[in-house]
Amino acid sequence: MRENEREETPDKELFSGEKVLLVDDNKINLEVTRTVLEQAGVRVDTANTGEKALELFLQSKEGEYRLIFMDINMYGMNGYETTQKIRRMNRKDAKTVLIFAVSADIQVTYKEKALEAGMNGCICKPFSYNDIIKQMHRLLEEKEGEEDK
Q1: What b/e string do you get for 103-126 counting C-beta neighbours within 10 Å, with b at 16 or more?
Q2: Could you tell me which residues carry 4-aspartylphosphate (predicted)?
């Protein structure tokens, strides 16, 4: 988390019932992000490789994950490749699940590449609780707006 940034008290009811898939090959990043999400009332499944993320997504019930936090730079299958494979799966939710790129290297070119790979947005590390909550609010509201049409 960023120094000198005042954190808001997490509201456990904010995203209660939401389930996300968190993918990161760095154990510390995985645990920190998991803790931040759980403070917001989110249920979290974790994967430390792109391959494991694909396996968990395939084993999940359709629509079980509303959000995936995807590290971009992982050993083996990176986040771009993993996202593209999810988007090509023969499942309705593979096309609609929200996927956030999470990386310390979020520059304009990374953001563009993330969007081209089928991701919905980006969060830069180090991030704060507020960064994640703002992105989750924005994307969930956009998705709900699309479903209402």
Answers
A1: beebeeebbebbeebbbbbbbebe
A2: 71
